[in-house]
Amino acid sequence: MKIHVLFFFILTSIVCMADWHSDILDKTQEKPVFLHNDRPWNYTLIMGIWGRGGGRGKGGGIFNLCTELRDEFPELPYRNTIAMSWNPGHLENEDPFGTPATMRHISDLYSRIPGSERYKDYPIKDLENRGKKPVYVALIGHSYGGRSVVILSNHLERKANYVATIDPVFGASGDIDGITFGLGIKPKGEVIHNWYQRNAIEFVDHCTGPPIQIPGGISLGQALKGEGVINYKRKFQRGANGEARYMNCPSLIGEDYKAPLYTYHTIIDEDDLIWHKITKQVKEGISLAHTTLVKKTFRATIGRFPMDKKEIEWGYEIASAKGMKALREELVQKFGNLAIQIEYNRYGAIPDDKYGEYKEWLSVHGIDFVGNEIKKRLQNPPSNIVIKNRTAGSSLGVINTSGKMHASESIHLGPNVHIASRKQITFDSKNIILEGVVVERDSKISNGKVMMSAKKTIKLQHGTVIKAAFKGLIKQ
């Protein structure tokens, strides 16, 4: 029995395979501009800035931390982890009244991005507009390097993903400079951690304790103010797991005893617990930034976010090994037909011979471009619409949307089409054929005027099933 169904139709919602997507993207749903072609690691930047006297011998905590971070992330190009002075040059580095070399820091940071050059004319906005926007940026600084990081974080075109300062010093006048500085400039970043101590500048006699604090806090770190800043005041040295460190001290009247090791300005940048927390935060931040880029690339290329963690891992593996351009090409190869079909349905048609052309557009411009082009070409409704086997890798197509669809002659659903529950679809065509279609409960198919309801299942042509609570107009 061949059934023709008379309805009114133009589809306004897209066909989806699932509603899952990460909460990570809830705050930023915009599609990425396709400027990143290389691996996400090539757009990942870590900059460590040391202060006066840092970076030479054992005292160079920031230099050593950057070395540790290079070992931690072997996928990250060596040159993308930058360790440098707050004011390069021996005399400049030692000058307590000097000014941080912010322009040099900017130039060294952005010159690591593929295709960039070493600019001197404040190039950040121009660089990012030319596709040199980093995927992840971490800024880490100690002492005067902490001051440099705070300034640098205010000069980036976008917020740094992570800002970490260790006992930051803002000038030779100590706390007075810090207060004055803090009134005008505060660190900017998605995550901001600040570790500081008030014990001493140089070595402390751990058995007798730290000396009386120098008035004004000369070269002592301090708490930072600003949105999102988390301050950690440290008194003692800690191991990577947070355990206190001790030394044996002689006693004048009895057995030796153990005293905790105090931290101080010139040693706090070597603290194992601080290194551990910074490394952990950078690792989590890089993973989040890279994964978010993969998800946004899914959405922009094929019109949906990844279905599940398995798809995320598949996309991330391709992006990390071959680059973002390769990921877009793989997405188009694997899901391009479905993505194009979704866009056709939004504007009331099923593709004919345009797959090849539209798939090329997908890999270069993304789904929005394809949709706009289809819309331009479909000012007049198509004669016939056919929907069958809708989902990739499945024998059953799914219409998980409500909306309208219009064709001048006929609309043919099936075989293997599944209309999800609680959907309302309106058709406009001379004929509708349902072949092997399942309509779930509480869904409605109508011509906009008359509806039919059924409390029990109704079977139509070739296995079409309309379950309880279906409403629609059916004519033979």
Automatic annotation (TrEMBL):
Signal peptide feature range: 1-18
Domain of life: Bacteria
Keywords: Signal
Protein's name according to its UniProt entry: AB hydrolase-1 domain-containing protein
Organism of origin: Uabimicrobium amorphum
